[in-house]
Amino acid sequence: MADNPKLHCCGIVELVPPPQPPAKPSNKRPLITGCAEVERTTRSSHHDGSGGGFATQFDKKHKAEGFVDRTTGRAGFKEEVKYKSTVKVDDKWSGCTDVYSTQVKFKRVTYQPAVKAVPRFKNKRVNYH
Fold it and tell me: Which among 1, 54, 74, 119 has most CB atoms closer than 10 A?
């Protein structure tokens, strides 16, 4: 990239550890277990050209669906949100175009609590009096 001074890029990727379950009594399991991941990407570019003006664009994509883990078979809920912001500036005086783009992704999977099997009949014996 040092050979081409007309193109500049930078990026940031950030991973966040899964949230810790709240404090619970020792005989009960947490109601919700899950994992969260945040990915943030920032990119800017500079291109030579002619023209002038200023433009901005903001996109948000949200996706949510049921989810079954292939390895454990646990059912849950998967949610993805993606934000993208773009700013384009045309400079007529210098003949340059600057484009700044920022993208943020958030993914979360929430699993349903494990359910214990409950016997159908607690008393299988019939008592006659």
Answer: 74
**CA gap 47, 38 in Å, rounded:** 30
Residue type, 116: K
Segment 52-71 shows an average pLDDT of 79
Contact (CB, 8 A) for 57 and 89: no
Domain boundaries, the chain: 33-59+82-104
**pLDDT, mean over the chain:** 67
- Residue in this structure with the two tokens 């993805």, named with its chain if needed: 80
Contacts of 81 (CB under 8 A, 6+ apart): 60, 61, 62, 63, 105, 106
pLDDT tens digits, 103-123: 888 888 888 776 666 566 665
* β-bridge partners, 109: 35, 78
Cα torsion for 107, 28, 118, 71, to the nearest 10°? 30
The pLDDT > 90 percentage for the chain reads 0
Which two tokens mark 115?
């359910």
CA atoms of 108 and 119, how far apart (whole Å): 34
CA distance 104 to 90: 25
